[in-house]
Each structure stands twice: as C-alpha cells, then as structure tokens.
C-alpha cells in the first residue's frame, strides 16, 4: 500500500516536473541523451528520498532542479569527462633510466684499475677497442701467445676483483 502511494506520488512529480527538468538539463548539458539520464537520475533520487514524495508535487520543484544541477556538475567532474582527447601524434618513447649502466661502468672501471698494467692494457684493447690478438701483439711488441695468456689471466683477475665488489656470477 505504501509502495503504491509512493509510486503514485512519483508519477505526479514526473508528470508535473519531467518536461521542465529535461529542458533545464538540456540547457546545462547540450545533449538530449545526457538530459534524459539527468532527469532519470533526479527522479530516482526523489524515489529514494521518502520525504520528497510526501510533499505536494508543486513544492518539490526547487529540490528537483538543485539535484539535477548537482548531477550535471558531478558528471562534468567525473574521470571520463576529464580525459584528454586522443591526439594525432603518438607519445614519445619512454626513456630508460641509465643508472644501472653507469653504476656497472663505475664498478668495472674500479675493478680494471685493480689489475696490473699488462693485464689491463690487453683487456681494454681487446674488449673496449675491438683489437685482435695479432693487432695487440704488434702494438705491444710481444708474442701472440703472451697476449692470449695476459687476456686469460687478466679476465680471471677481473672476475675476482668484481666478485670482491659484490658482483656474483
């Protein structure tokens, strides 16, 4: 019985205020579908607010228009409305952070500094300058076997120096 009275009261409110509410919502939104949504939401809130439906329909107009205005404001502040429109340009590629590279380079530099001059020269020549064993042999004036030996023992010492600095493999 109470539900029937509330439904009848809502029907009376709808009959009296739906058209003016829709025009008001349309003036605020500029979109007919959105105005329909605002009116529907406003009437739903009236249905949920029991005391509004106990008032005579002609006296709830102010409340309905305030609720409609607040709904429009809330929708304009919502996340989908604030999103940027897609641009014609793609975003820049992300730039990776080079901190790890710099720290690794510093650690290798320190470990190389801990090696003997003979080992350091062949390792830097072979791995950083891209020299061949023959080129290094000619450049340093030593036999190719000596260059190979220095590379082998130099790399072994470099691994040990890095391990001492906390680099594990």
UniProtKB/TrEMBL annotation:
Pfam families registered for this protein in UniProt: Sigma70_r2, Sigma70_r4
Keyword Lipid biosynthesis: no
Database matches in InterPro entries: RNA_pol_sigma-70-like, RNA_pol_sigma-70_dom, RNA_pol_sigma70_r2, RNA_pol_sigma70_r4, RNA_pol_sigma_r2, RNA_pol_sigma_r3/r4-like, WH-like_DNA-bd_sf
RNA polymerase sigma-70 region domain span: 15-79, 111-159
Annotated CDD domains: Sigma70_r4
Keyword line: DNA-binding, Sigma factor, Transcription, Transcription regulation
Membership in a protein family: Belongs to the sigma-70 factor family. ECF subfamily.
Official protein name in the record: Sigma-70 family RNA polymerase sigma factor SigL
Organism of origin: Brevibacterium metallidurans
